[in-house]
């Protein structure tokens, strides 16, 4: 059976199966609210089926002309329009950019509960008022002289409208009649590496964290012909997902911002989409779009002071896509007669990582006895004329030679680091077998060429590396029962052993076992990035669907590297 939760209006389900403790995690799927299949025996009580919910948070509020520079919103002081405001996570990751409206208000919505800070960019000639004056959080100015606020923590559903900024024109310097130059806040420079931005603050299906593609750093100051320090137009780029599999649609959002008080002309954005992605179309909020093959060109024309243009490029991953895919967009144009093509802020990159579809690891033969799983059956068990080639794209061997029977088998010894896997031992199932390295076949993880072997996805991390190493094995084939026939019997605490050709062996411990409908399997959790050293084992489960030549479910055993290694 399956439990279905319905989230109240305004609530989201949290990530599924986190932390490794079934009593404390959330079981509901992020999109559907449904749990994986739950099997109960007579008299069993399972109190571990839970659902975590959260509400999006928001923060904002007001940028005003603090004419008396007292840091307090006094009567008659009005808002300032088109002030650029940046939202950062507490770790220095740039999440989003907005500008104040015609009344001086701004708002960041749909935020995951957590810690954030805001950076305000004063218009040319303005300086920021003293912070935290007067004792009223709704009336004071919050940023320091560099435009950065302190870090605040938002809880689920919170709407914090107290982050305000007072600004005023700086007095003339040297009697020139021109405002003294101001500098871009230091917080705009990346604290370490390249800052990032996200297009959504809610997790994608099958991922454990919100997507955080790479984009370019925010702009450096640039001096125009007037001698007043200003900031040139710049470009940001994000993808709507962190991981992608063959045939999946990926949308890239490109944002062009002119934060200065000077218009830019002849503004053009060029997006050269990699061959691993097929361009399906593009839209822009200003200008004209031209698509020629893999190249998307957007002629924006004139970009007004404080203006923002949003471009969306829709792509689809090609079959057989492997590895990371970086998509680069370039901004060109001029401002005050100066070309800004060569500036460091006119190129933006968004990267997605490909993940495979699940392998087809089983066929229900006419005669299959689990008790005879170590006795390969004969060709007479082929059912309805379906061949291995039709099922798996290649012929399968049923020759059974376990590693335990190899005379020259190297002695096993504890490994100290990642291994290139050649041998798999699962004592709880009596398995001791060879591991084949495989790639992708039609966008899915390939299967072992022998029904008694396991396969390792050679585009995934090695066992013992940080990330999700993935092994697959047949439940059965047209030859009969196979190596992972009883994979679903593993329980948390069971040990999995993987070794290389020299006998160096790593120990992994089972912490979760899940059976998923094929269309519901969390591919991001199975194949996607992970901060832990995990090894995931896959095989078929459920019922065989003759029309689809596959089972309707997949069993996934999640393990992590044991601390005893």
What would you say this structure looks like, in words?
This protein is mainly β. It has 4 domains: about 55 residues, no CATH class; about 130 residues, Immunoglobulin-like, CATH 2.60.40.10; about 120 residues, Sandwich (Immunoglobulin-like); about 190 residues, Sortase, Chain: A (Beta Barrel). It has 2 helices and 38 strands. Strand 5 and strand 6 form a beta hairpin. About 15% of the residues have low confidence.
Overall pLDDT: 77
Rg result: 29 Å
Return the CATH architecture of the largest domain: Beta Barrel
User: Which fold name fills CATH's third level, the topology of the largest domain?
Assistant: Sortase, Chain: A
The rounded distance between the terminal residues' Cα atoms is 38 Å
Number of strands: 38
Low-pLDDT residue spans: 173-230, 364-385
Estimate the strand proportion.
Answer: 35-45%
Supply the number of helical segments: 2
Count of distinct structural domains: 4
- Indicate the overall shape: elongated
Question: Order of strands across the widest beta sheet?
Answer: 27-28-31-32-37-38-36-35
> Helix content range of the residues, please?
under 10%
Structural class: mainly beta
